[in-house]
Design a protein that fits this description.
By secondary structure, the chain is mainly alpha-helical. It contains 5 helices and 2 strands. It has one domain. α1 crosses α3 and α2 runs antiparallel to α3.
Length: 127
């Protein structure tokens, strides 16, 4: 089941970047099934796909986020089936760990905008 078969693959690329585009033709039943799976996933807590769904829904809207995460689920299924790999959950805080410095600066700026003075001290790690 390649992701293109489910017709949730966006194929518009300009200058090496993915742009908004229409989904390709594919199996409408598989597309509906993937949308139902993502809808159920988006209503759960503490997992990577739910966090991705909510993160995208803020930027591009719920419907487009469902299509985008459906593509991710289709790719995951494809690799699990063809390479016989188990699903590896990345966790809900995966996006927070990607760029720790950017997240720290952004949070400090938001707190300062609310009128707080922020002094950061690193937490000691016990060995």
């Amino acid at each position: 089941m390649p992701p293109g078969l489910a017709s949730v693959q966006v194929i518009t690329k300009v200058a090496g970047k993915r742009k908004h585009g229409k989904t390709t033709k594919g199996n409408p039943y598989l597309r509906a099934l993937l949308a139902e799976i993502v809808w159920a996933i988006s209503h759960t807590k503490d997992n990577y796909l739910s966090a991705k769904s909510h993160r995208l829904a803020r930027r591009i809207g719920k419907t487009k986020a469902i299509v985008a995460v459906s593509h991710t689920v289709a790719v995951n299924f494809y690799h699990m089936i063809t390479k016989h790999l188990p699903y590896r959950e990345l966790g809900a805080n995966y996006f927070d760990t990607l760029d720790h410095d950017r997240l720290t600066k952004h949070t400090v700026k938001r707190l300062e905008a609310l009128g707080y003075e922020v002094i950061l001290t690193p937490k000691e790690v016990s060995a």
